[in-house]
Amino acid sequence: xxxxxxxxxxxxxxxxxxxxxxxxxxxxxxxxxxxxxxxxxxxxxxxxxxxxxxxxxxxxxxxxxxxxxxxxxxxxxxxxxxxxxxxxxxxxxxxxxxxxxxxxxxxxxxxxxxxxxxxxxxxxxxxxxxxxxxxxxxxxxxxxxxxxxxxxxxxxxxxxxxxxxxxxxxxxxxxxxxxxxxxxxxxxxxxxxxxxxxxxxxxxxxxxxxxxxxxxxxxxxxxxxxxxxxxxxxxxxxxxxxxxxxxxxxxxxxxxxxxxxxxxxxxxxxxxxxxxxxxxxxxxxxxxxxxxxxxxxxxxxxxxxxxxxxxxxxxxxxxxxxxxxxxxxxxxxxxxxxxxxxxxxxxxxxxxxxxxxxxxxxxxxxxxxxxxxxxxxxxxxxxxxxxxxxxxxxxxxxxxxxxxxxxxxxxxxxxxxxxxxxxxxxxxxxxxxxxxxxxxxxxxxxxxxxxxxxxxxxxxx
Length: 461
Ligand code: UDP
Fold this sequence. Notes:
Layout: H1 4-17, E1 22-27, H2 35-47, E2 51-55, H3 69-79, H4 81-94, E3 100-102, H5 107-115, E4 120-124, H6 128-142, E5 154-155, E6 163-164, H7 178-189, E7 195-198, H8 206-213, E8 226-228, H9 242-248, E9 255-259, H10 268-281, E10 284-289, H11 309-312, H12 317-320, E11 325-329, H13 334-338, E12 343-348, H14 352-361, E13 365-367, H15 374-384, E14 388-390, H16 400-412, H17 414-431, H18 436-446, E15 456-460
Helix pairs in contact: 4-5, 6-7, 6-8, 10-16, 14-17
């Protein structure tokens, strides 16, 4: 969803500003995906009929063979190259495809489209800092030998603060893994795009954007133009959720919100530590709690069942914190939550959509990264953007005392709140008429040959 939603939002953005275009989303919804993906696609088809979907046939995969959802997605698209070619050919029968915009997992689609003479743009749904890291990764790969996870050193990449080697995006850590090779191919192919669209805005990540546009991240070949068209985030969500009424009753900027993306899960021990830390902090809180990960491999890619709070949380916790805390099971309408006046802080796993949603709402963060490129995002959020405090862990575990300390610090730190409010204003400016992101969108569309204004666009997820 963290890839599909921004792609849909990009389609909406293009259609809003250039209504003469049509957008087709080429999607592959594998059988192991949660049902929510298919229902989201149905929802968009219903509410935004200008975007049409072209579904690729599913390819059955033995998901046991793939350690992560990302590894399975790379394999799916590798095996879908012929289907993508057929889809492009079939659409070309009735319309001219002006441009093909592909997601990170869809590298094989680049070869197919190039063969058919269709210009390919990449849409990078995380930030420019991570993009800079990925563009520079082939150079790092060539100039090192071991795995980054074993190095215990600082990685110096153009446009980025020094990143501890262990904090690089998780697929880059183990040189012997299949997903490392998949990412390397993706990173090598990226500069071959006709352009790279990034979900960020200029004043949020100026150093990384400059390093990319100056060509420092890809020293051995030209860097394509990059288009910083963000921040794009999902529209509103469920406005009737009970937690929104509860937030309306709390004082301004008094509540810390804890939520860890669509995939973040904790052990029952870690959940108890968080609960104890929250209770001792004395702060108001809204906490999204999920059932701990299943030991059954078959369940890995499925959303967990509804949590049993009495079993998972310390005895009496819910009663003792009843007047100042709310625990929500599994899912909260995050965008609406972050925009409530009572929310004053966000403990986040640093997924890029969550980061942008907090930036747009002007909410400072505590960074508690869990997977993918979130550790790198944490370093950038803390060291570079000064938008987050770090949640320190020991051996992957965070103590109740650390939760208590960081939550209190976040809610009392006026400096970090001012930085968050300044970025909020800049984000709004970037997206307003004449702002940097609007200009980037105009430049992007101008690069797609103006004479073809009535022809369809095709996106791939
Ligand atoms: N989200 C939500 N409620 C939840 C958990 C997540 O609305 O309880 C949304 C969140 O607003 C964001 C997306 O799910 O838009 C998660 O994307 P992100 O990039 O932050 O993390 P990912 O899930 O991809 O790791």
